[in-house]
Amino acid sequence: QTVVTQEPSLTVSPGGTVTLTCASSTGAVTSGYYPNWFQQKPGQAPRPLIYSTTNKHSWTPARFSGSLLGGKAALTLSGVQPEDEAEYYCLLYYGGAWVFGGGTKLTVL
Amino acid sequence: QVQLQESGPGLVKPSQTLSLTCTVSGGSISSGGYYWSWIRQLPGKGLEWIGYIHYTGSSFYNPSLKSRVTISVDTSKNQVSLRLRSVTAADTAVYYCARVMDTAMASDYWGQGTLVTVSS
Question: Which residues lie below 8 Å from residue A9, measured CB to CB, with a gap of 6+?
Answer without folding.
Answer: A104, A105, A106, A107
